[in-house]
Design brief:
The protein has 674 residues and is α/β, with parallel strands linked by helices. It has five domains: 1-44 and 162-170, DNA polymerase, domain 1; 48-144, Beta Barrel (OB fold (Dihydrolipoamide Acetyltransferase, E2P)); 172-236 and 634-674, no CATH class; 248-429, Rossmann fold (3-Layer(aba) Sandwich), CATH 3.40.50.300; 440-600, Rossmann fold (3-Layer(aba) Sandwich). The protein contains 21 helices and 24 strands. The strands form four sheets. Strands 2, 3, 4, 5, 6, 7, 8 and 9 form an eight-stranded mixed sheet that branches. The structure holds adenosine-5'-diphosphate and magnesium ion. Adenosine-5'-diphosphate binds at residues 260, 262-263, 266, 289, 291-297, 409, 433-434, 538, 540.
């Protein structure tokens, strides 16, 4: 292996034929670098060499012995079983495999073996190891040490990976894998040289050594994720945007026209937005707030300022219903402010020349017609794709770029904001609106269902309550299947709630039909609204105080949280009943979090702890890549890395800067390729 490079295809390695190469490709391993960056998921500790007679059940050990007996047996079901018994100072240990006759090849009685694995009790009460690691002779390559266990695939075992990787390890050098961090940074952040970390993560001498290597490489992983992001942010800051001076007198007058007083955090958010808008580069701010904390009015006040300054604003809603709701609510206010407002959806157009325009996805096809934009507001931003967003915030004809304000009720955990958004500006609305109470939430097991229905009936009759029934979540998009499920539930409940006024709402209804149903609900002409999860997004029906959710365990926590936010929008006590048939402890525990927590960020961070990495709240939804080594819970690491990456993008040239730039180029090539 004279000329080894990170990009060298693995098929040039000894022991990798075309077949294995194809299999390794399934693990995304194509080059030497891919192979070296295929990290062990954990280590088995075979360092404890024990005498057979001192073994205990359930421990993982390494043992030496002589072969006393070896057999290839037929089992009752017609399969084969390979059994070797080894002996040491008069004590015996059985080794067992199934359907692997080759295991016995080249072995005979009296040979010395060194074996490792987990000690179990055989049906006859003997010590036994199933599928042990086995080496001939008195000392082993694999046994007697910390053994790396890798993510595997069909035909590619940890054993195989270990061998191929081990053959590469002696060749690792600073030349092959040059460091991303200058020596003084390494010292400051306590990082190993890159090549050493790579060697040590695969073949650590101790668990501490493994830990250090993993830490160094986790740091590198997050750093390389951050770098392109921060470079891009830096470029964004070089883009021109209209610098808009906030008119505080105008703002005060506008506020006076509101039927309520802004909360402290709404005011804070507006101040932050005002500051951003005065800068000569585009604002990119996330307005995050629990459902019902009043994000819309903040956006409207910001939009009003921009339109008064002579620029155009669009407010993008994820659905037709929501766009209309925004329009209905904001129109009276803007009329009062003597500022025109319009709407442009696929179904409905009014006043489309107005400087403040509300729209849906339909607007994407007309980006040019709308003309130059001063501000783009995106409601429920996760509902929009990356390319759709890009289209909206593209360069104006006059060369400037619009400011961006995104809104979400899905809280972004702090690590996620640091790592994947490069610590982009966030304004959080944390105040509960005056008079609002947290929604009392209960998990309802099957045996209590009938009683729950009786209780709901009574609440409707006596307190004139309204209820939502949300049918099981089936797919993200509204499919015929979920429509059918809701229709079936509607028929079932019509019998149970005979004498009440029930209605059915789903995404396949025409928008006039939907609007009519929502209006009836608003007026109190419906008692129970059965619906698919389409109600999740932003609908405001303040009279409704009860929500029943079917098969609650099928929803994500963030989604349940959003659904629950549909009630509790008035000053009476509201209820959320989570129906669940599951007996899974994990699901139950997740649902119970909702009964206890009423703050979005706390819930998101609790969810983070409960779930494994990769399935973290919102990360798949937002399309963030999975982390190999770094942990979502490690705010401390994320903060350090962010600091380092920030420092890096401000170093314009030099040995390390050129390495970072090279990484960036390769990265961009990869991104544009697929
Ligand atoms: P969300 O943050 O979920 O988008 P909305 O903007 O729909 O919430 O606001 C929910 C309701 O609260 C609306 O009817 C809105 O008019 C009202 N609201 C907003 N801010 C306040 C406030 N400071 N005091 C009282 N009510 C408010
Ligand atoms: Mg909203």
């Amino acid at each position: 292996m004279a000329k080894l490079a990170p990009e060298t295809p693995i098929r040039y390695l000894k022991g990798v034929g075309p077949k294995s190469a194809a299999r390794l490709a399934r693990l995304n391993i194509k080059t030497i670098k891919d192979l070296i960056y295929h990290f062990p998921s954990y280590y088995q500790d075979f360092r404890r060499l024990k005498q057979i007679r001192r073994l205990h059940f359930g421990e993982t050990v390494t043992v030496k012995g002589k072969i006393a007996k070896l057999e290839n047996r037929l089992t009752k079901r017609g399969k084969t079983m390979q059994q070797i018994t080894i002996e040491e100072r008069g004590a015996f240990l059985e080794l067992l495999w199934f359907n692997q006759p080759f295991r016995l090849q080249g072995l005979k009685e009296g040979m010395e073996l060194i074996v490792a694995g987990l000690v179990k009790k055989s049906p006859l009460g003997r010590w036994q190891i199933i599928n042990p690691l086995l080496e001939k002779g008195k000392s082993g390559q694999q046994t007697g040490r910390l053994l790396a266990i890798y993510p595997e695939t069909d035909g590619i075992t940890s054993n195989y990976l270990r061998k191929v990787i081990a053959s590469l390890l002696p060749h690792l050098s600073d030349h092959l894998f040059p460091d991303y961090f200058p020596p003084d940074w390494r010292q400051h952040y306590r990082l190993l040289p890159r090549w050493q970390a790579l060697r040590q993560i695969h073949a650590p001498g101790s668990l501490e050594a493994a830990q250090r290597a993993r830490y160094s490489l986790a740091f590198e992983e997050l750093f390389l994720l951050q770098l392109p992001l921060l470079y891009r942010q830096k470029q964004e800051r070089n883009k021109p945007a209209p610098s808009i001076k906030w008119n505080w007198t105008l703002a005060q007058e506008a506020e006076r026209d509101l039927p309520f007083r802004l909360t402290a955090s709404q005011k804070g958010a507006l101040r932050e937005i005002a500051q951003d808008l005065q800068r000569p580069y585009p604002m990119n701010r996330l307005l995050e707030g629990d459902v019902g904390t009043g994000k819309t009015i903040v956006a409207a006040l910001a939009g009003y300022q921009i339109s008064k300054a002579g620029y155009r604003v669009v407010l993008m809603a994820p659905t037709e219903i929501l766009a209309r709701q925004h329009y209905q609510r904001l129109q009276p206010l803007f009329t009062q402010w003597h500022s025109p407002i319009g709407i442009w959806t696929s179904q409905y157009r009014e006043n489309i020349r107005a400087p403040f325009l509300i729209g849906t996805h339909a607007l994407f096809h007309h980006r040019r017609e709308i003309g130059d934009l001063g501000l783009v507001i995106i409601d429920e931003q996760h509902r929009f794709g990356v390319s759709q967003r890009a289209q909206l915030v593209a360069r104006n004809q006059d060369g400037t770029y619009p400011h961006i304000l995104t809104m979400t009720a899905t809280p972004i955990p702090r690590t996620v904001n640091l790592v994947f958004r490069g610590n982009l500006d966030v304004s959080r609305l944390t105040d509960l609106l005056p008079g609002r109470q947290p929604v009392a939430t209960f998990v309802v097991p099957p045996r209590k269902r009938a009683a729950a229905y009786r209780w709901v009936a009574k609440e409707i009759r006596v307190k004139k309550e309204q209820a939502f029934v949300v049918c099981p979540f089936i797919e993200i998009s509204e499919t015929m299947q979920s429509v059918r499920a809701a229709t079936k539930e509607f028929d079932r409940l019509r019998k149970i709630f005979a004498g009440f006024r029930l209605a059915l709402l789903h995404g396949r209804l025409k928008s006039q039909e939907k609007a009519a149903i929502l209006e009836k609900m608003q007026k109190g002409a419906i008692d129970i609204l059965i619906t698919t999860p389409v109600v999740e997004v932003g609908i405001d029906l303040p009279r409704a105080g009860i929500m029943l959710i079917e098969n609650a365990e099928r929803f994500g926590l963030a989604q349940l949280y959003q659904l629950r936010g549909r009630v509790g929008r008035n000053n009476r006590k509201s209820y959320c009943l989570l129906f669940s048939e599951t007996s899974s402890v994990k699901s139950q525990r997740r649902l119970r979090l909702l009964t206890k927590l009423h703050n979005g960020l706390a819930l998101a961070e609790a969810d983070l702890k409960l779930r494994g990495p990769g399935e973290v709240l919102g990360t798949q939804q937002h399309g963030y890549p999975q982390l190999k080594l770094a942990s979502w819970l490690d705010l401390e690491l994320a903060t350090k890395v962010h600091q380092a990456a920030q420092q890096a993008v401000n170093i314009p040239s030099g040995e390390y800067a050129s390495r970072w730039q090279k990484f960036l180029q390769d990265w961009q090539e990869k991104v544009t390729l697929n």
